[in-house]
């Protein structure tokens, strides 16, 4: 996703929006530490972008994050304590952004956008739930396809810009925005 991040950075989100792009490690604990730091220092709207588990040319809008079921080991060979994001946290947390409304009202020429309620119980879902938990629902997650001949960095950057601007419009947000991407 890194070239698309650079493309989004070049495009920006408008004059009144401070876009910050960060890459999170594929390590549960380190990713959680960075997310906690974001929420304690910035109080933003965080839009996570992760690589979709399949090579299908789809953009997937994730509505909620799940707390439990994290059995798969991260890049360092660990999984979270109790196989969950937050001990005693709610089973799932919904984004304050209505992804269904966003999905119905947005289109990006050249790629299908679908809605999902399961971000996959790995680093993507883990970071999303953690961000929703610490940010009181002020987070979003977008799964994107890998880059290819038809899905270029420029194309994906433009698609992300369109989707994130629609999210900001939906929540009337004109403050600081963070965009975090995983490997």
TrEMBL record:
GO molecular function: pyroglutamyl-peptidase activity
Annotated TM spans: none
GO cellular component, one term: cytosol
Pfam families assigned to the protein according to its UniProt record, in alphabetical order: Peptidase_C15
Family annotation (InterPro entries): Peptidase_C15 (IPR000816), Peptidase_C15-like (IPR016125), Peptidase_C15-like_sf (IPR036440)
SUPFAM superfamilies per UniProt: Pyrrolidone carboxyl peptidase (pyroglutamate aminopeptidase) (SSF53182)
Protein family membership: Belongs to the peptidase C15 family.
Name of the protein in question: Pyroglutamyl-peptidase I like
Entry keyword Oxidoreductase: no
Record GO biological process: proteolysis
Keywords: Cytoplasm, Hydrolase, Protease, Thiol protease
């Amino acid at each position: 996703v890194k070239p698309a991040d650079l493309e989004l950075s070049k495009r920006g989100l408008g004059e009144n929006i401070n876009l910050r792009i960060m890459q999170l490690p594929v390590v549960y604990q380190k990713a959680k530490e960075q997310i906690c730091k974001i929420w304690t220092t910035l109080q933003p709207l965080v839009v996570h972008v992760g690589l979709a588990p399949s090579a299908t040319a789809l953009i997937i809008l994730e509505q909620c994050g799940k707390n439990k079921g994290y059995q798969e080991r991260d890049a360092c060979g660990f999984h979270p304590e109790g196989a969950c994001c937050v001990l005693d946290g709610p089973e799932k947390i919904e984004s304050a952004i209505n992804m269904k409304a966003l999905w119905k009202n947005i289109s990006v020429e050249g790629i299908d956008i679908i809605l999902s309620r399961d971000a996959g119980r790995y680093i993507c879902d883990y970071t999303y739930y953690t961000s929703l938990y610490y940010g009181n629902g002020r987070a979003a997650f977008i799964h994107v396809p890998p880059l290819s001949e038809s899905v270029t960095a420029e194309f994906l950057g433009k698609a992300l810009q369109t989707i994130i601007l629609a999210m900001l419009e939906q929540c009337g947000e004109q403050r600081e925005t963070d965009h975090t991407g995983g490997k």
